[in-house]
Amino acid sequence: LGDKAGIRRYGSASVPMEEARADVALDLSGRPAVVFHAPFVGDKIGAFDTQLIEEFLRRLAATAGLNLHVNVPYGSNDHHMAEAVFKALAQALR
Predict the structure, then answer these.
(1) What are residue 13's DSSP bridge partners?
(2) What is the per-residue pLDDT for 15?
(3) Domain assignment of residue 3, yes or no
(4) Which of 39, 64, 66, 67 has its CA 20 to 30 A from that of 27?
């Protein structure tokens, strides 16, 4: 991003997915930090370990210098919760 000239530094999005909702707020500050709250019901979505979602987001934030806040206030289907997180992240990065 260089000197960050011409970019929007802040972004946020709230995405509903069936019974779940994910809220993502971010700051391209260059100072990585993550606040992650997504109360997944199970340990896996199919063969995919749900803990890897937080790990991926932490590595993304560290590498990109993002201050990243992810909150899933409600949901009962892990697949819907995870999908909402990634779609909200994509919208917040636009």
Answers:
(1) 24
(2) 99
(3) no
(4) 39
Residue 42: which domain range? 10-93
In this structure, is residue 1 part of a structural domain? no
Q: What is the pLDDT of residue 8?
A: 83
**3-class secondary-structure state, position 89:** helix
Q: Name the token pair of 70.
A: 């992810």
What is the mean predicted confidence (pLDDT) over 86-94? Answer: 97
**What CATH number is given to the structural domain containing 46?**
3.30.230.40
Max CA separation in the chain (angstroms)? 42
DSSP assignment of 19-84: TEEEEEEEE--SS-EEEEE---SSSEETTEETHHHHHHHHHHHHHHT-EEEEEEEE-S-HHHHHHH
The count of domains in the chain is: 1
Residue 2 in this model has a pLDDT that exceeds 90: no
Report how far residue 90's alpha carbon sits from residue 94's, in angstroms, rounded to the nearest whole number.
7
Mean pLDDT score, 48-55: 98
Residue 28: phi, psi to the nearest 5? -80, 60
